[in-house]
Structures are given as structure tokens and as C-alpha cells.
Amino acid sequence: EALTDNRNRAASNIRNAFTKGGGNVGTPGCVSFMFDKKGQMIVAKEECDKDADELMMMALDAGAEDFNEEDDFNEEEDSYEITTAPDDFGTVSDALSNEGITFASAEVTMIPQTYVELTSEDDLKKMRRILALLDEEDDVQNVYHNWDEPDSDEE
Known about the structure:
By secondary structure, the chain is of the alpha+beta class. The chain is built from four helices and four strands, in the order H-E-H-E-E-H-E-H.
């Protein structure tokens, strides 16, 4: 997602990031079908005084679509993931907040339908470079990808 006052400049800079990183740019929206727009709330287990079943029932009663128990989410701590339809995000997050639930993160985001694990060191290096270059670009607001980075002690 990009927000810009100069579409040509932003497109050129984004294309340049992919070229420098050894990637390719497709037409706008050509991979959006591979992602679902969802509300996503992450609750750290150690920050939650409710057990999984109790939290799940609270979330589902508030209108959540799904509830998952995650281990080592984002290489941090064990957590619960609650997903909602984008339009229900505010209702569900308010209902849980009113019950004293605090979120490690809560946002409407694009969630990949499938993940791809990169195993080649060259591919990993290219992907990291592309993401770093896009992160440096002021016009780029959010980057969504379906890269599932293999577990590594180096990171």
C-alpha cells in the first residue's frame, strides 16, 4: 500500500526496489487474490488472565470469525490470534477491550491464504533486500507478503 502525491515517482521507486532486489513487479492488484483483508488481534498469553476457551467464546460472541492458538508468534511469545471481517473489527476489539483484554497488536491487515518458504540463501537475501528497500521508501505505507521465513538463530 502506498500513499503519494506523485504516482509516477512512487511507481518508479517501488519498481527500482524490486529491480535492485532481483524481483519483478506485476500489474497493480495482480496478486491481491492471494490475500484476505481481515481484522487481526494478537493477545499475548502471558498478558491474558483468561484461558483459551473463555477468550475464544468471548471473541466469537462478539462477532469474531476465527480464533487460533499460536506458538512463538513472530518469534516472540505464545499468543492467541483472533480474526474478524474488516467491518466487524471495531466491534470485536471494543468488546474485548471492555472485558479487560489487551492486545499485543490489533489492525485490519492483509492475511495470506498460503505461505511460501524460501530455502535458498540467495532467495532469502533478495527478499530481505527488497523488503528493506521498500521500508526506506517514504510513499510505502504497508508491505504484505506470503513469505514464511525459516526458523533461524541468526535473526
